[in-house]
Amino acid sequence: MTNSTITAVEGVSVGHYTDSVGMTGVTVLTFAEPNVGIVDVRGGAPGTRELAIFGDAIKEVTVNALVFAGGSAFGLASADGVVGALEVDGRGAPTPLGPVPIVPTVILYDLMVGDATVRPTAGDGRTAYGQRSGDPVELGRVGAGSGATVGKLAGIEHATPSGIGSAQRNVGNATVGALVALNAVGDVYDLSGKRLTGSDETDALDRAALGFAQNTTLIALATDAVIDRNDMRRMAVRAHDAIGATVRPAHTRYDGDTAFVVSSGIREANVDGVIEAAFEVVAESIRSAITSSAR
Hints:
Number of strands: 14
CATH topology: L-amino peptidase D-ALA esterase/amidase
Number of domains: 1
CATH class: Alpha Beta
CATH superfamily: L-amino peptidase D-ALA esterase/amidase
Number of helices: 4
Order of helices and strands: EEEEEHEHEEEEEEHEEH
Shape: globular
Low-confidence stretches: none
Largest sheet: 5 strands, mixed
CATH architecture: 4-Layer Sandwich
Radius of gyration: 18 Å
Strand order of the largest sheet: 1-2-5-6-4
Mean pLDDT: 92
């Protein structure tokens, strides 16, 4: 079977924990090591953990795992389980007293969809880590996308189910893949401009009710291409361009829109092609988050 998801990138594995009753969950990604990562946050209300390691003045460090979780800020607790599991596996930044796992984490707000008292826990994060594989990623209303919705500009009653989407492209001998947890306040369009969610009612900006519904689009980009940190940042910019092209509105003051890029740097490739592939795979991942959630 052809793998058209992020796990087509050599060394990438993905696992989900899904609570189909509470409608929340966790998605964990791991990567070939060593690697280099960067992050670009464009939303006005992110919920994050351990993003400072990507600062310009910080030395390069291998990302042992990324965690996407529902549950708003409560969901950050899921990273503790992943950190513990990585420690058991002996993975992390080397220190005199043993490895310290590096696990950047971001969350989305899904409390209005399922049971607001149910939030991802450390145990849920550990479960997602244990479920990871290099098989094609399960898409739709799973993992961190379990309670994801889009199209809420005019009210939650207009919401459309969303979830996890993923896609990949080959650039010469290298591969670029994306995974998206799509929980946007805006409606979703494909690159031709065709509306995939919502109705004309949501065009009425004077009815906008953004404050009730904190939202987020979370992106993980992975590649095995040889690419430096500056060009990885261009990949992240193109990832956010793809949000802007397919989600309207995007990057609002209530969003936590965040894009990660992780590269193992083992295959030579045309850097401009890799950067543009980032736009394509994110746009396709956003589309697949909608189509997979409608099945």
